[in-house]
From TrEMBL:
Xref: InterPro entries: Rce1/LyrA-like_dom
Record-level Gene Ontology MF annotations: endopeptidase activity
PROSITE patterns in UniProt: PROKAR_LIPOPROTEIN
Keyword Protease belongs to the record: yes
UniProt name for this protein: CAAX prenyl protease-like protein
Transmembrane segments: 7-24, 44-61, 73-93, 129-145, 151-169, 198-216
Name of one Pfam family that matches: Rce1-like
UniProtKB keywords: Hydrolase, Membrane, Protease, Transmembrane, Transmembrane helix
Domain (CAAX prenyl protease 2/Lysostaphin resistance protein A-like): residue spans on this chain: 100-192
GO terms under biological process: CAAX-box protein maturation; proteolysis
Domain of life of the source: Bacteria
Amino acid sequence: MKKKVNFLAILTFYVIAIACRYLATKTNLLEAVSNDFLKVVLRGIGPAVGALVVFKVFNIKPVLSLKGNYKKLLFPVLLYWVFPIALICGAAYFTNGTIPVVGVFAVLVYGLMEEIGWRGFLQQELKSLPPFLGILVIATLWFLWHLNFSLTTSNFVFFGILILGTWGIGKVADTTQSLLAVAAVHSLNNFFSELNNTKIIILVVLLAVWIVSLVIRKRMSKAKTGEVALS
């Protein structure tokens, strides 16, 4: 029996997410914050706050966690956070002589704040819907959350990217159940919004390593399921 969609929980989550986003980006509230890292995080904190509230109020048990279905937290930390930070900072050092550790970490944390809501709560709450409908609903709410309603070509392209991202990040969430993994994949768009040769190489390396690791993990999971069924 499929779980019923809790529309009140979704509404509560989304109102909180939108309110936080509006306060952070459409008002002068963050002008009092001098720390750039904190400013970045606060712009994306709404989905996390909304999710944590509905988890508590509606007694919903989160499916995703930082560790996910890995045996130890260290592995997703190294693969999805330390690896991209080292790769991006290393490339920046050799090309520009800078090491933007704080900036890269801020983008990852920003992605994590969003993913606690979009994949950690909303995707799980909409599991009973047909897959494409669930993807379309999440992508639409995600798009509207950005509070950018201009009818421009770039916005239509952005909506298409969000549909593709909702599908792809959703697959990562289902395979790993790790918030660190989905936050890292989410952050690719922010890391590489403007591409050059160096960034393309980094992007290809990251995607190649992550996709191979996900394929291996999925096969291992199927093998374990088969062993359980036979025993």
